[in-house]
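Ticket #4471: complex job returned nothing on first submit. Input attached below:
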Amino acid sequence: EVQLVQSGAEVKKPGESLKISCKGSGYSFATYWIGWVRQMPGKGLEWIGIFYPGDSDIRYSPSFEGQVTISADKSISTAYLQWSSLKASDTAMYYCARCSSVGALNNFDSWGQGTLVTVSS
Amino acid sequence: QLVVTQSPSASASLGASVKFTCTLSSGHSNYAIAWHQQQPEKGPRFLMKVNKDGSHNKGDGIPDRFSGSSSGAERYLTISSLQSEDEADYYCQTWGTSIQVFGGGTKLTVL
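Support reply: We reran it on our side without changes. The output follows.
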């Protein structure tokens, strides 16, 4: 069974850094694209970016490029989303999700449970 | 520009059927899409992928009440025999070589 397990909720102050994680299991982590999605309170899903652990290929949404960094450590089947300087507007639920086919950037078919990030002074 | 458009809301009665529409932007009418369900206070769940020819591939455990179809630039999700637990937000997703796109979502109210 494919599972994506995300790290727990975080409460941070503006200007602080943060790295959240998403651990994959039940499949060959290195051979599927894994992405990150933001959902601000009461709003819809927004694609942040996507990473291929096999060769570290990465694509960002223009809306998020330069604002976050996506990475992964395939030795421990874990993807990361990080911020160097959080803003209050980063307050949101963040989901990781896996693409459905080996090596293909296509639809998500498995989702993590979400990590709530709250940024407040 | 690759965009998918959804109506913001829909409503239908318990036991009835409802059909959601996801419209692909001009020049992208041959793209496949995926449907995801998000129940209140829960994370998204993959329902199915719908191809341009209307064929669809459902996720594990998705009931037969859920089906997909296609016509031109429109992709559809139909839910029959509506149940109370179907009250949720429904998102369509499409993708290109370097991009993923979500629609704004349709909020379903089951009356």
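Chain B has a mean pLDDT of 97. Closing as resolved unless it happens again.
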